[in-house]
Amino acid sequence: MMTESIISIQSVMWLFLATFMIHDFEEIIFVEYWMKRNYPKMSNKIPGPARKLVKNMSEVTSAQFAVAVCLEFIVFVPVTYLAVEHQNYIFFIGFNALLFIHVFTHLGQSIFLKSYTPGVVTALFVTLPYSIYLFNRMVSEGLVSFKEVLIYAPVGLVLLPLVMLGHKLGKMVIRD
Predict the structure, then answer these.
(1) DSSP helix/strand/coil, 8
(2) DSSP assignment of 122-138, as one string?
(3) Is 160 exposed, middle or buried (0-12, 13-18, 19+ CB in 10 A)?
(4) In terms of pTM, does the model score above 0.90?
(5) What is the pLDDT of residues 45-77, one digit of tens each?
(6) Nearest alpha carbon to residue 57 among 128, 18, 122, 109
(7) Residues of 31-59 as b/e, b for ≥16 C-beta within 10 angstroms?
(8) Three-class secondary structure of residue 9 per DSSP
(9) Torsions phi, psi of 81, nearest 5?
């Protein structure tokens, strides 16, 4: 493939940080405005188990959301460094697998609500193609096997408490 000779796998891996930020910039920019405008009319459509989570998100400001994103980014930099420079792929693949799955949560939300939701555009047009390309390149270049991708993917779940902590910190640090 032509792109394989033009873009090194190391560069593709470092692009994880850019991909993450492009996606999260869309969420940061639109989440507060979108929630204020749409939460009242969608709140009755939300299934019981998700109601509390969505209610909490409806009260998040863009600045508070940015705190959570910043915390994630701080973790992603050394994880990416370890993958690129030391071939330690476990967390890198886990986090990228979680980001890949996250695409479908955005898509599902938009389908369920029959409208745009913050993050869906970059999820579909940046994150999805990047994730597919990244995993394909890593497997085709023999850095990991497809089986290892599947085995390492659940490691990404360690990110969930960090995200929750980030949102808690955001509310503590930036008050309305």
Answers:
(1) coil
(2) HIIIIIHHHHHHHHHHH
(3) exposed
(4) yes
(5) 888 877 888 888 888 999 999 999 999 999 999
(6) 109
(7) bbebbeebeeebeeebeeeeeeebeeebe
(8) helix
(9) -55, -45
Tens of pLDDT, residue by residue over 119-139, are 999 999 999 999 999 999 999
What number is the average pLDDT over the span 79-88?
98
For residues 97 and 39, give the distance between their C-alpha atoms in angstroms, rounded to a whole number. Answer: 29
Please give the residue range of the domain that contains residue 49. 2-173
Tell me the residue type at 83: A
Cα(119)–Cα(29) distance, integer angstroms: 9
Compute φ and ψ for 71, nearest 5 degrees: -60, -45
pLDDT at 2: 56
